[in-house]
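User: structure tokens for this one?
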Amino acid sequence: MGQAQSLLQPYVNEVAVYLKDVNKEAVREFIQENRWKLAAGCAVGWVAWRIYNYPRNLPPGPYGPPFIGAVHQLGSEKYYEDFDRLGKKYGDIYSITVFGK
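Assistant:
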């Protein structure tokens, strides 16, 4: 047994004892009853994290909804016209977020 494993063994044993006493049916029922609340909480947390971690040193540019970004503003087949339109609106240097990148 390695040194890391021997250091973690007391904690592993403690967690194993705790998990043995957990009523798995009660946990399953709690998740089923509150799945929309849990999903909404995760979504709100993710959006808050994205807003908080949004790079603040980027040039100006269009901001779109989460996940898709500004892809809806690049809808035509002549993409160079879309970029030209954005350049006229935001200047020669601008940033654009597409699919979160």
